[in-house]
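Inputs:
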Amino acid sequence: MDRWQYLGLLGLCVTMTLPLEIIGGARVYRRPKALLTTLAPVVVLFGGWDLLAVRHSEWRYSRRYTLGWWLLGLPVEEWLFFLVVPACAMLTYEVLARRRRP
Amino acid sequence: MTGGYTIAAACAPVLVVLLEVTVLRTGILRLGRFWLATAITLAFQVPVDGWLSKAQRAGRQLPGPGQFGGAVAMGHPGRGLRIRARDDHFDPDALGTGPGGFGGSGRTAPAGGRPPVTDARRAALLAALRLTVRGGLAGVWVRGHIPAGPTVLTGNHHSWWDPFVAGLVRPAGAGQALLGRRPRPAARRATQVSPPGSRCAPGGRFTFASAVPDRRAARPAGTACARRSA
């Protein structure tokens, strides 16, 4: 079960913030084009940083807590992190922005 | 690239602010809800990331059996290299003790060789060393057998604990030298020994080498190791 820990946590992040979109009225997932445009620089910049850091052995990924599927030099979970976490942040921001607009 | 992450992490927000002020000019930094959203994200991010970033387990720091003639693993409780007496990496062959205390029972007494200082000053010094190390380190293990006679300790990373641990591991030791990660040729000549040979795997540990009188010129195995760790 340990191997699912990282992916499971990401799933939890998505699940817990989903009500913000459905009930809270944040329009993040409903604007996929805007979402992808926002995520693209995050993935490129921080993915690049991550790759560099791994190359310099600043950190590494535990085989115990990841599924072991690697993509372009990083675990799949790490790439998903750069999609999930910014999306959660955007949902938070959008919900707060929503409340101001009638 | 020690500290590289810290530097990059400190630069990132500065760059973002500069980008916003000079190029993007969206005005988002003046919005209260932006800072509120940032604060909420941060409040989740810190515990989640903290949980994700597992502390490095000490077990990884211990060399596998047979990898070294002998090795000391040491850790600092505040730096993620903690070494504790846990079942998952308990080493029955290890000399020395865990957090329970430092053995002064002569387990590390060398075969032969007389202690360099035999008076009360030595006892006081060792007691102070023991106190310092016990207060600062979670434990020190010696795996394998420290060869009798002169010993060279070569740390593959530096810590100010090195001499303290070295002093305790061989409290009554015969000749002992503590070299840097890359022993300078002059130091090698002075100690007349080679750096440890074949393996310099990364990790917080010392490698021990029997003091091999190096009557020939620099031994290739040793120099290769020194180069690789650069």
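The beta strands of chain A are 70-71, 74-75. Flag for discussion at group meeting.
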